Each structure stands twice: as C-alpha cells, then as structure tokens.
Amino acid sequence: MHLSYIFSGLVEIPSYFLIPAAIDWLGRKPSVMVCHLILAFSLLSMYLFDHEADPEIFLIIWLIAKFAVASAFMLCFVYGAELFPTNCSYGIYLFFKYLFYALCSFICTILTTILPETKENDSVPRSQQQSLA
User: Fold this and answer.
1) Count of structural domains within the chain
2) Which of 3, 17, 79, 108 is deepest in the core (most CB within 10 A)?
C-alpha cells in the first residue's frame, strides 16, 4: 500500500541530478518546455490504460509524470528567478517587504481557523475505499 509513496519520493531524486545537466545542455526555456511536454503526454497516455487491468504500466506512466512535474517545478525556480530578479535594497522598502509577508502569514493563520480539524475526526475518510463509499 505504501509502495507508491516510496516510488513517488524516489522518482524525484534523478531530477535533482538531471535538470542541472539539461539546463547546461538545452538551456532554460527548452528544458522547461520539454518537461511540460513529457508531463502532458504522460498524463494523456494514462487514459489509454486501465489502472486495474495494467497496474504496472499505469504505475510507470504515473512515475514518469511525477518525474516531469518535479523537474518542471525545479526548473520554474531557476528560470523564474532569472526572469524576475529581485533586488534586495535596504531601508524603508525592506521594512515593507517584511510587513507584507508578516501580514500574509497572519491572514493565513486566521483563515486556517475556518478549516476543520482532521486528526481525530472519524467522519474524515482514511482510505480510498472509505472515500468511495
């Protein structure tokens, strides 16, 4: 049951080694495009296979999609930081930056109080079978 979680974590590890090489070899923009294209094709190809009849093929395609999304996420940090550089200036603007993030954190704290607690709530489904029932 927990094998998919292990595979989900392990499939991200190669992206940390392959993406820097892909950035050097292809460049930033083509690397992002290739990752998104692999992701799109792998997600669309999941409709071709029945996950109950062909679980191994479905798992392989899902892992390819997971690898592609982890790679694209990593590339968005690198590419986005270069597209939209942030100047760290001191003075009054630095004060407003911290104030803005503090305000956002405070708003998120308040909004989280609206959400229900799920730790010991028996009405919350704990498995896929309970969710479907």
Assistant:
1) 1
2) 79
